[in-house]
Amino acid sequence: MKLPVAFETKMRKLLGEEYAHYIASYNHPKSRGFRINPLKVSMEEWNRISPFETRKRVPWCEQGFYYEAKEKPTKHPYYFAGLYYIQEPSAMAPGAYLPIEEGDRVLDLCAAPGGKSTQVGSRLGQKGVLVSNDISATRAMALLKNIESFGIRNAIVTAETPERLSSKLEGYFDKILIDAPCSGEGMFKKSEEAIKSWEKYGVSHCCNLQREILDYAAHMLRPQGMILYSTCTFSPEENEGMMEAFLTKHPDFKVIPLTPKGGIQKAHPEWGGAREALKDALRLWPHHLEGEGHFVCLLQKKGEKKEYRSYLPLEKRIKDYPDMATFFEKETTISLETPVMEVKGKIYAVPKESPDLSGLRVLRNGLLLGELKNKRFEPSHALVLGYEKDCFKHTIDFKAEDEAVKRYLKGETLLYEAPKGYHVITVDGYPLGWVKAQNDRLKNEYPPSWRMMG
């Protein structure tokens, strides 16, 4: 791999004697990782059912594993059931280091494709509120799919600018995760496109974006709340230097020390002309650990907590929609008292203390339960993935190795004798999706855009 000369010169100056070891890391095999979804499977369960040869755990992420190159985790039915997420190991660090408490209101500000949102959402345990945002509506659709796959019921997905979000959400969030758009130097081994982008845009373009994003995030954070800022670049200007500039502009923030794990190194405030406190931020280097490059810094806002008041009014319940209530009574054990809202015929189960986001581009207002069509309720795919098997009264279970599972995931009709009506297909007890049984056939309701290829 040919690295830009200017980049090599900079890294040689920064790393000194370590530079040779850093360059040698480009010849190391790529690190492959996946992260277990604790909303659906415990670590004890996973150790019992895991179909993969995993080399070891990711030291900085309790749910993370390294896997062998020969494995194909995206082809296994457990992937479609949302039991795990494929993620580069160092990218697990920001979501792991963000402190999460029960009931937190968390914003993932630059969230697509959803790795860090699924991590935060699974740690929230269906409590509190997760707002996952990406400025691009196209990228936000991939984010939405991953959140639905993970079965996260308390997530709101938006596609907005940080500026417009901040206009509605002053002081709302307890925690904000900013995986900032950056020059991507830590991804050079993984992506030649990252090199081309670095050569085209450089560091200064990203710094301007980062400054704006941080300012809007500070506005949306409650006093005593925390911002976890991360990048996948080595550039001091975007890391220690960016944090120094933010702290100078926002003296009501302080650095919270983070503990290095598994080869993670402390930051270098001297590189960015930054205050000594920034030594307690972290850097992930590919020549010190199995993973690519990352920077992680935790900031806390000073001051006294204030109460946020602009909540979304939640007046409706499942029971208030007769056709939907009939379906839920017949097919599920889910409470008819679940708070819901209707948007253009689509019904969402909305997390408590949701903010009023009227006027913003909202892709999901919570868990999509289904849609009312001519007063008839049609359940969503997200509903199946959002609850465990015991929440559904009619299920058909297949083993992971059963050929019928792959046929189902490819969208095929299955020959199977079952009572007429809706059923949930499960794999080893984990829900996959809906079918409609009729005349000894199972009509496949698996969404076309989710289907297994090949």
Q: Brief description of this entry?
A:
The chain is of the alpha+beta class. It has 14 helices and 24 strands.
General description of the model:
- The protein is of the alpha+beta class and 454 residues long.
- The protein folds into three domains: 87-301, 3-Layer(aba) Sandwich (Rossmann fold), CATH 3.40.50; 313-349 and 361-385; 388-454, Nuclear Transport Factor 2, Chain: A (Roll), CATH 3.10.450.
- The chain contains 14 helices and 24 strands.
- The chain has helices spanning 5-15, 19-24, 43-49, 77-80, 93-97, 115-124, 137-149, 162-168, 192-201, 204-220, 240-249, 322-331, 381-386, 403-409; strands at 33-36, 54-57, 64-67, 84-86, 105-108, 129-133, 155-158, 173-179, 221-231, 253-256, 265-266, 282-284, 294-301, 316-317, 339-343, 346-349, 362-364, 367-373, 376-379, 395-398, 414-415, 421-427, 430-438, 441-444.
- The strands form four sheets. Strands 5, 6, 7, 8, 9, 10, 11, 12, 13 and 17 form a ten-stranded mixed β-sheet that branches. A five-stranded antiparallel β-sheet has the order 14-15-16-18-19.
- Strand 22 and strand 23 form a beta hairpin.
- Helix 8 (162-168) packs parallel to helix 10.
- The longest helix has 17 residues, at 204-220.
- The model has no long low-confidence stretch (mean pLDDT 96).
